[in-house]
Amino acid sequence: MTARVRHGFGRLAWYLREVSGESAYDRYCEHQERHHPGGAQMTRAEFWRWRMDERDRNPRARCC
Asked: What is the rounded distance in angstroms from the CA atom of residue 29 to the CA atom of residue 47?
């Protein structure tokens, strides 16, 4: 593959991760490391459970 094609696939993968919300846990980990070094972090499963519970507690404009 050429570098241009690989770059295109990389950008597409980034876009899909952002749209699907898959990158939210990565951003959470980066935030924890930056603002709370040495503190406890939720596991991926705990994070997603918390996120879904938070959405149920604080509904915003969404279809369901």
From this structure: 10
| Domain ranges, residue 49 | 3-57
* Count of domains forming the chain: 1
Assess contact for 27 and 35: CB atoms under 8 A. Answer: no
Q: What is the pLDDT of residues 12-59, one digit of tens each?
A: 998 998 898 889 999 999 999 999 998 889 999 999 999 999 988 888
> Which amino acid appears at position 48 of this protein?
W
Decide if 51 is inside a domain.
Answer: yes
Write out the two tokens for 41: 């972090």
For residue 35, give the 3-state DSSP assignment. helix
| Token reading at 42 | 């939720």
